[in-house]
Automatic annotation (TrEMBL):
SUPFAM superfamilies: MOP-like (SSF50331), P-loop containing nucleoside triphosphate hydrolases (SSF52540). This is Carbohydrate ABC transporter ATP-binding protein (CUT1 family). Residues 4-241 form the ABC transporter domain. One of its GO terms (cellular component) is ATP-binding cassette (ABC) transporter complex, substrate-binding subunit-containing. Signal peptide: none annotated.
Length: 362
């Protein structure tokens, strides 16, 4: 296990990058603590896999350093970093049996045959392939082959880190849940540093103790699932986390009031006036309908029943506004005004969250 630190890291696939736009990864300074379970979350093309491949040594960064427990491994080959990596699509040896595939990393390192047999049996049970250990990999399905890849990544106890690059893409939905649970169990049992790349917020939030959210080649927030939901540090985090995501509305801020589409919205605190595009953000869970005249006028477009709650899709003078209502809460036929819980409103300038003026923070 190891503490992994990224210092002034940036990467471009161009031979002579110029400005920031030429970089697939903008400047990153980040530490993954020893024994932590992390998810690296973001949309396709945001740089997640590039960052993972830099940590593993498959890609050499254009700038910056990678440190394992304080040791600079930026130029060290993958074999010297002592990590296991599981890729998006299954990488197995078709001519080997399931047992031989799982044992390969241990045999390659000269481990005792009895120990190898015990570990293979343990991992096979974890991935649900105990009854297929004698089968050749060639005849297995794609999701079975990916389970072998997962197992091979987990079979070594002494690795510095295990890196997972969207490993459940080809796994059926029920097995995804089971494997995520097993990965969490493995982490609790052995305490490996684990970094799990995904574009799926459910996978990220259920697997990780902390989530690193990436957008357009940069890390926009590191936090617990609760922190990302309750206090998103960037509009992308607010929109990307949650179902549906945060409502984001252009606004003018004057002290403790936001003006949205010509209407006053009370805020939970006072904010200084700032230059740049200003928005307020409110989770749909904190939007409610009212019959008071001081509510924001909306037009309800449709209602989606998703079981335990309903999602009301509305329009506020060209802005989409979503509200989440409990399943049994009635919605009047003439519902046309909403209010926001003031203490749950965030203020964003040029996409970054700003703190109230009373805190003295930037």
């Amino acid at each position: 296990m190891a503490r992994i630190e990224l210092s002034d890291l940036a990467h471009s696939y161009l031979p002579r990058p110029g400005g920031e736009a030429d970089y697939a990864l903008k400047t990153i300074d980040l530490a993954w603590e020893d024994g932590g379970a992390y998810a690296l979350l973001g949309a396709s093309g945001c740089g997640k896999s590039t960052l993972l491949n830099i940590i593993s040594g498959l890609v050499h960064p254009t700038r910056g350093r990678i440190l394992f427990d304080g040791r600079d491994v930026t130029s060290a080959p993958t074999t010297e970093r002592n990590i296991a990596q599981v890729f998006q699509f299954p990488v197995v040896y078709d001519t080997m049996t399931v047992r031989e595939n799982l044992a390969f990393p241990l045999k390659n390192r000269g481990r005792d045959p009895a120990y190898i047999a015990q570990r293979v049996q343990t991992i096979a049970r974890m991935i649900g392939m105990e009854n297929q250990l004698g089968r050749k990999a060639r005849g297995l399905t794609a999701d079975e082959k990916q389970k072998i890849s997962l197992g091979r990544g987990m079979v070594r106890k002494e690795v510095n880190a295990i890196l997972f690059d969207e490993p459940l893409t080809v796994i059926d939905p029920h097995m995804k849940w089971e494997l995520r649970t097993q990965l969490k169990q493995l982490h609790r049992e052995f305490g490996h540093t684990m970094i799990y790349v995904t574009h799926d917020q459910t996978e990220a939030l259920t697997f990780a103790d902390k989530v690193v959210v990436m957008h357009d080649g940069r890390v926009v927030q590191l936090g617990t699932p609760d922190e990302l939901f309750e206090r998103p540090g960037h509009t992308f985090v607010g929109y990307f986390i949650g179902s549906p995501g945060m409502n984001l509305l252009d606004a003018e801020i004057t002290g403790d009031t936001a003006i949205v589409a010509g209407h006053a919205v009370p805020l939970g605190d006072r904010y200084a006036t700032r230059a740049g595009r200003t928005q307020i953000g409110i989770r749909p869970e904190f939007v409610s309908f009212t019959d008071e005249d001081d509510g924001l006028p909306v037009t309800v477009q449709r209602i989606e029943d998703v079981g335990r709650h309903r999602i009301v899709r509305a329009d506020l003078r060209g802005f989409a506004v979503n509200a989440v209502l409990p399943e049994r809460m009635p919605l009047p036929a003439d519902a046309d005004r909403v209010v926001f819980a003031p203490e749950q409103i965030g203020v964003f300038v040029d996409d970054w969250r700003v703190e109230p003026a009373s805190t003295g923070a930037a």
